[in-house]
Amino acid sequence: MKLQWTDVADRLEETALGDTLADGTRLQDGQRAALLAICERLRGGQRALLLADEVGMGKTLIAAALIKAVQRSGGRAAIIIPPGLGAQWQAELRRFDTADHTLSPLRSYWGFIQAYARAEHLSDRQLLRERRERELADRRLQLQLPSGTWAQEPLLLLSHTLGRLVQTEGTQTEYQALLDAILKVHAGTRAYRRDPAKAAYQNVARAAAERILAGLSSREQRQLCEGLTHRTPDLRKAICLAMGRALGKFDLIVIDEAHKTRGAESSLSRVLDTLVWKSETAFHLGMTATPVELDPDQWTHTLARLSVRSEYLTEMAVAIQRYDREVLNIQVDEALTWDLVNRYAEASRILHSALAPWVLRRDKREDDLLKRFQKACGSHREIVPIEVPISNMPLAWRRIFLTSEALSQLHEERLSPQDRRMRLSLPSGRSLLDGAEEMVRLQACDDEITQLDSPGEPIGPWQRLSRELLGEDGISLFDHPAVIRTVEEIELAVRAGHKVLVFGRFIKPMRALTFLLDAREMVRRLCAEDKVENRWPQAGLGELDSEREAALKVALSDPAVNTRGLDRDAVDKALRKRASRFETARRANLEAMRRELADDPATADLREFWLADGRRHDGNSGLLAALEDQRSFSERHQPWTKKAMLAAFRSLVNEVTSGDPADDSDLDVKARLAEHLFDFAGREGHFARLMYGSTAPQTRRLLQAAFNREGSWPQVLVAQSLVGREGLNLHKSCRMVVLLHLEWNPAHVEQQIGRVDRIDSKWACEAEAYLGAGDVSSSPPRIVVRPVIISGSYDDYHWSVLKRRWDSMRAQLNGDIIPEADADSSEPERQVLFDKIRAATPTFAPPPLANCQRRL
Fold this sequence. Notes:
53% of the residues lie in helices and 9% in strands. By secondary structure, it is of the alpha/beta class.
């Protein structure tokens, strides 16, 4: 039955004007206004919209409201999301329906085909599982399958990467087996010659083909087979077409982070263009806080993904180019004139006319709290670079930086701009040995810089420098001036009561920063008085890997940290002594807990898991360490009570399962807990934690939950930009962001800052309290951004380019044509011009809620 979008609009309006959600919370007025604006477009017959609210303003909840309205009206929806955001979407959907059982995201062909491996194909399933065991090692428990067919699920989460289908020899065999089976089943071929080498895939493929075709009409079956025959040379497009028909037809397509991977052959484009099967009246909802990053034309690239017609896109492109040109004229012309301002105002009007039907964008500056804070205290953000001057570095490090930058300029005609930028950032972003290898490879193809240290031995300046500095006792990333200075600034912030979120691009310096923070905190606590509050959760050093050994060595060499002059053996002895004393002191408490748990049937699951966890009877079990992490610092000094332990266990289970009622089977909970506790068995610190590409999805969720708890470790979260800058909520206990490696794209920086600058953030709570108290004598709270800049190096130029691009992006998205400081003028006529520029700035915000309600 064809979905009636007017019914969807009616149900969405009920949500917008309703009192509370299923979880007892309320939508904000801005979110309600956005929903009512969407209702107006639905009733007007529009079938595409870009929701471009600034980072942290609750776009996901708005999209979830629309999805639920579509489902209640009998429609189906697909949400296409970047990797790692499935749990967040599931949680937002449950705010409207506590019984929502949306499956975890479908990420691969392997996950797709598993739904068709029936019991009679058990041997085939085992063969398939063996083949994919390595691929799924870190995310096996993230796979969920439909109880019926994929097409029977009212809502599916699809990963951006689903279209990134590899074409190795093994996968080609599997893909071709499914395509062949579909064609043969449609042709009525009951049996066909089986290749023993492909039998496992053919059996499952046959079962899949039968069920896929059974869900299609005769005309749809014919169209599918014709499409497969036409697309067979392009195996990836053919398999996407087949998978799309199996997933069923969708009435609503939600594209999270719609600006990503805009290329026509990107994985996201393949999902949208080939895999997702859209109904005749399908509605496209794009979501992104940064539709424009580096080029104003990206407006049209993003909107094209929403199936906006080409004639509208052409009109937009002309308007965007004109607006950009007039903005630049105002910014570069110091003699501001009425002619310039009038041309800008007209260009702004045309831009608004072209984009407003398709774009909704709420600006943070429209938020009531932000307005009040701005009026009383100025900007709510504070950008304070961590400057590391080359002139103050030890001689060895100065030579490394200066020589690296000099050698990076050689062969300029042979290098792409990206290669030159990468080589210029080598001393900041990679290990020194990596840099030495890179430079040696570079000079190997240029005789002009090759020198002779001895007859017959060619050696270049970088290679000689690396030999001098990179011996066994040479320097390492743990001595890196930027790493050391960043560690010191982070420690000052933590002592002042902040949690700190660090973003970086290169893994090795991120690991060095994390391990050094942990090692210094451990040594500092061991040098302090032996009290419970100075306990370190480690019972000895054991055998450390080379990186942790290097971090410990550097920490011990700093007299400001190692105030007692400890060596490695003394550290190991102190850890063992303190662990023994602490465990002895609380053994009686734990024994009492075991007796209480044994007498209470309601605690059977906790008791069973505690006894099974390593069969330990002291406080060294992974479960007890994980339960400790559920407590604040002040609570950890108190003995356990049955009530506190049970509450901590329930909280841990809720985090491990993401609160998903679909995951509450005993077997699943035990498996997820067991996997999670590997992270706590014999762990080393965790004052600072690293989250990067190899971090399992479940661990990322738990890190996010722990970082958001006030007073819980980790105090510092070091996140790889590609992994942590989008979708994660890290704002509950943090308002400080350190940028370890500078980005070139200002949209990436906005996404990074947006992890802590969100609705109901720590800053928002502190700002509300500050304004309510009216105490102007204390410093107002702000979102603190600390970019690490090696001044006197290429970083100075990098930072200037980033700031210029940042200003350009704000002009496009926020209407910040002239900075506030420059717009304050004592000349009356000039001030009038500035005021007209502000008034003419295009806005794509929905009408205020009161206006919407009056129209209704």
